[in-house]
Design goal:
110 residues; mainly alpha; 4 helices
Length: 110
């Protein structure tokens, strides 16, 4: 008997939720969003698989043409060039400034 009462309460709460949220439009929106999300995830996975396939094909090609050493050297040159392009260093503050100190510091710089 307790199970029947519990199920009856659940059905009533579901019915009241449906009354509050309209004629299923909300549920339709959720379904649309879920389907859109699934589609995007599938496309992402497919893209990742295709990229892995291309990467493997490139590696096979480079190895078959004995160009792997040239490729590795090229990557090292690019990596070194990127490391040389470091961003501007910002000084580290020991403590947080209050608003007056910040204004005074900006005025001193000008």
């Amino acid at each position: 008997m307790a199970n029947v009462e519990r199920l009856t309460k659940r059905v009533k709460s579901i019915e009241s939720w449906i009354e509050e949220n309209g004629d299923g439009e909300t549920v339709g929106n959720y379904n649309f969003l879920l389907n859109s999300y699934r589609t995007e995830v599938n496309m992402h996975n497919r893209t990742r698989t295709e990229m892995d396939t291309l990467r493997n094909l490139l590696q096979e090609f480079l190895m078959s043409k004995e160009m792997m050493d040239d490729w590795n050297e090229y990557i090292k040159e690019k990596d070194n060039a990127l490391q040389e392009q470091q961003t501007e260093e910002v000084s580290v503050q020991e403590e947080a400034e209050n608003s007056k100190e910040a204004v005074e510091a900006s005025e001193e710089k000008e």
